[in-house]
Specification:
Length: about 475
């Protein structure tokens, strides 16, 4: 794959990743411009996340069935059209409908990026590409807040959406040069699986996104229980489906399940930190939205520096630094988070700048190598499964972190106390994630020293029954 193709993929990733957070800064202006209620503003932000979380697994499977390049470009076309509809929305309901369309289109784009990178690169080039992918995936929230503050301060809320239109049009035009990925799978879409998973994800995400503002009424707990039960039914169905929507067998590969948990946990910790810190900087310290967004620049610098440099570290030899890097990164992040809370407890301190750089570097070291290790362990045959699980897991982790840790922050007596409590919980979460990362590291060889392993998906239930019959006959 050429570098130009990687630029196209990562630009599409940036566009859909940052659109979840860029709107947050624009909400006061949207309220004034459209005379929107609080409930409608919740739908503007939550509708995008809900549609994307519900459909991202289906989007990954559609890439297998109809070609990753084709689905990527179709998703970009839908996202661009929905962005235009958002930018010219005459009222609140029209904006909400367009945001749902944006989220559904983003669910087509996101999983194709990781799948095409995994299928189009190999060896050290794949490590570098995955490092850039991880950086874009993780920093989309921070980039969205910074860009949102700049755009809204200069031109209002509508350009937040309209700027996607020319960018999307260019990506669609040049997207035809992308590699097509592997040969399309000759099978049907698992429609019952789509319905079961969509229902379960809706039941999970709706109370997490909207329940906090409603005071956690009983229906939120009923929905959460129903969502968990729905995921169990989905797993049972997928084990018996002739053409499953999601290859859950990838979770049985050595180190994949704990590594996936660690990757999702660090993304959840990041979402919780950025949520609580942004509110503290604005509500507690009185910074403007633009100043609060710019305060995260040191974090992005630390992440970018570590994200771009870790693939060059030795993976074997006398000093195999890359092997334990995920564990070390998570522990560094765990130590830096509460120190940031101390530094900005009563006012902005210059000490917060190096601490944010260190936290960003720890985040990158703990997340990016894990994503590469998971992709290498699963192999190209299960690229879509890893992409779907990574994107769905990180989305759920973000929503769950904001719902729980956001509740901790908002329930504290003071802003400073809330930020401190959140960072203490993040330290505990990152410690558990480091244990999961250690299990992944112990279960696999250094990625650069290992061949490009392809795990062949196991036989479906019908093939297993026939295999068992032949074995009994012999």
């Amino acid at each position: 794959m050429r570098r130009g193709s990687l630029v196209v993929l990562l630009t599409g990733q940036v566009m859909v990743s940052m659109d979840g957070s860029i709107v947050t800064v624009a909400l006061p202006h949207i309220r004034t411009g459209l005379h929107a209620s609080g409930a409608l503003l919740q739908l503007v932000t939550g509708g995008y996340i809900l549609a994307m979380a519900v459909l991202v697994v289906t989007g990954a499977r559609l890439g297998d069935l109809y070609g990753h390049r084709r689905v990527f470009r179709c998703g970009l076309a839908g996202f661009t059209a929905a962005s235009l509809a958002c930018g010219i929305a005459p009222d609140g309901p029209a904006l909400v409908a367009a945001r749902f369309a944006q989220g559904g289109s983003a669910a087509l784009v996101l999983p194709q990026v990781l799948s095409l990178i995994q299928l189009g690169f190999s060896g050290p080039a794949r490590a570098r590409a995955l490092g850039l992918y991880s950086m874009v995936l993780a920093l989309g929230v921070a980039i969205g807040q910074i860009a949102g503050g700049v755009i809204v301060s200069a031109a209002g809320w509508r350009p937040v959406f309209l700027l996607n239109v020319p960018v999307g049009a260019v990506l669609i035009a040049v997207g035809g040069s992308l590699p097509g990925g592997r040969e399309r799978v000759r099978s049907r879409l698992d429609v019952p699986g789509v319905l079961i998973l969509s229902t379960a994800m809706t039941a999970l995400v709706v109370p997490l996104v909207f329940g906090r503002e409603e005071g956690r009424p009983p229906w939120t707990w009923v929905c959460l229980a129903a969502g968990c039960a729905g995921l169990a039914v989905f797993a049972w169905h997928e084990r018996r489906a002739a053409s499953p929507l999601l290859d859950l067998g990838v979770l049985r590969a050595p180190g994949v399940a704990p590594g996936l948990f660690a990757a999702c946990a660090v993304m959840g910790a990041y979402a919780g930190l950025i949520f609580a810190l942004a509110l503290h900087l604005q509500s507690g310290l009185g910074l403007s939205p633009l100043a609060a967004g710019l305060a995260f620049l040191p974090y992005t610098v630390g992440f970018a520096t570590a994200g771009l440099s870790w693939p060059r570290l030795p993976a074997h030899g006398r000093l195999p630094v890359r092997g334990p890097l995920p564990v070390a990164g998570l522990l560094v992040f765990a130590v830096a988070a509460p120190l940031i809370a101390v530094a900005v407890r009563h006012g902005w301190s210059p000490l917060a700048i190096p601490l944010l750089v260190v936290a960003g570097a720890g985040h990158a070291a703990g997340f990016s190598p894990l994503v590469e290790r998971l992709a290498a362990t699963a192999g190209t045959a299960r690229a879509s499964a890893v992409s779907a699980l990574t994107n769905t897991g990180t989305l759920l982790a973000n929503v769950l972190a904001i719902a729980t840790l956001g509740g901790v922050y908002l329930g504290a007596r003071t802003s400073a106390q809330g930020l401190t409590q959140v960072t203490v919980l993040l330290t505990a979460l990152l410690g558990v994630a480091a244990a999961g990362a250690w299990r992944t590291v112990a279960a696999s060889r250094p990625v650069s020293a290992a061949p490009d392993v392809t795990l062949t998906p196991g036989p479906g239930p019908r093939e297993r029954r026939r295999t068992g019959s032949r074995a009994r006959t012999r």
